[in-house]
Amino acid sequence: MTAGIVDAVAVTIGRRVDSDEFEAAGVSGEWIRRRMGIDGRRWLDPETPLVEPAAQACRALAERSADDAGVGALILVSSSAPRRVPGMAQEVALRAGLPPTVLAFDLNAVCTGFPYGLATALALVDAGHVASAVVCAAEAWSRLIDPNDRNCAVGCWRVQVPDDDPADHLVLGGDGGVSLALLTLARRQGFRVAMTASSDTRLALLDRLGITPIDRREFPGLASAGPGGADRDQARRHRQSLADLRRRVDEPSDGRGVSVFADNIGQPLFEATRAVLARQGVITTCGWKAGMRLNYLRGAECIDRHLFVHTHVWRYQDSARIRDDIEETGWLPDEADTVVYGFDEVPELATAYSDGRVDSYFPLYRVA
Question: What is d(CA 103, CA 70) in angstroms, rounded to the nearest whole number?
């Protein structure tokens, strides 16, 4: 690869929100600075469209570009865009004064959006499709963040089994950092916990944390076939993997199945998720790595009394309680389990993640 990152611009508009302003919710600015290193952040004014700061950043980069042909591609990365369709990229390109021939498109991959955007831009340049490309990340999460993950999932489960002992019930998570965080909380609440993983390093970490490790590699045909369907051999492997997974889950659940399943994959593994879910079980969304859409029969889910919980992050009013819990229990990743990449190594991180070569659940990259 010969392409690389040559310039960067940051646009900060809107109201500066100092960390001290969160004291009204019981979270001190000193605590935020000490634990996260954040002294302030910007909240976009309600009347300001998100395309405005995005266009400012793109315009500044285009004006400083040494490419006589102008910017050839614009990749607009956002998970908080005001609408699904049409995207923001074309409007941002127009406001930024980019050439009318610019290849402009949106990319929504939530947490991995920016490294995916960089990898896509580098690939476009390296393949010779464009001479230069701009990756613009624009977010306004202050307009979206609110619901609570853990309390909703466990609270919904309690609605149907108010008197059951959590020690008799299994919480299972897919391979991912958010799942790991949720399972450590479920374990504290007294649940049995298990998690799938696909590398020896991750399986050993789960065992060390008191989480029953389940080797995902033992079920190679677990994913459902795509729109084209499966041939006879694929269908056979799929049925065998489903049966093997059920038997494996029977061990930590005493044959009862999964009471709460933290799903971070989506449709390809949804059949497997439902196959191991207990009656009156809960599927709580903690990610959508393989897609945001699910297909299922509502009648079947009603008969099995399955509940679906879709939430994200936490509620503002819970900030003080969350802070106190983290302080008291040290609910943070072990520094030994994190890997830090330099900013110029982000494409390497994206490629390694795509190839399944990142063992850490919490890889980081420096921005300064």
Answer: 12
**Cα(196)–Cα(241) distance, integer angstroms:** 14
Residue 306: alpha-carbon gap to chain centroid: 24
In a 13 Å sphere around the CA of 137, the CA atoms on its Cβ side amount to: 15
* Contact yes or no for 217/175 (Cβ under 8 A): no
pLDDT digits (tens, 9 = 90+) for 179-208: 998 898 899 889 999 999 999 999 999 999
Placement of tokens 């009648």 in the chain:
299
* pLDDT, tens only, 89-100: 999 999 999 988
Q: How many CB atoms are closer than 10 A to CB 34?
A: 9
Sheet of strand 192-197: strand arrangement: 212-215, 192-197, 170-173, 258-263, 277-285, 307-310
Q: Is the pTM here over 0.70, yes or no?
A: no
Could you tell me the fold of the domain covering 15-144? Peroxisomal Thiolase; Chain A, domain 1 (3.40.47)
Q: Do the beta carbons of residue 309 and residue 152 sit within 8 Å?
A: yes
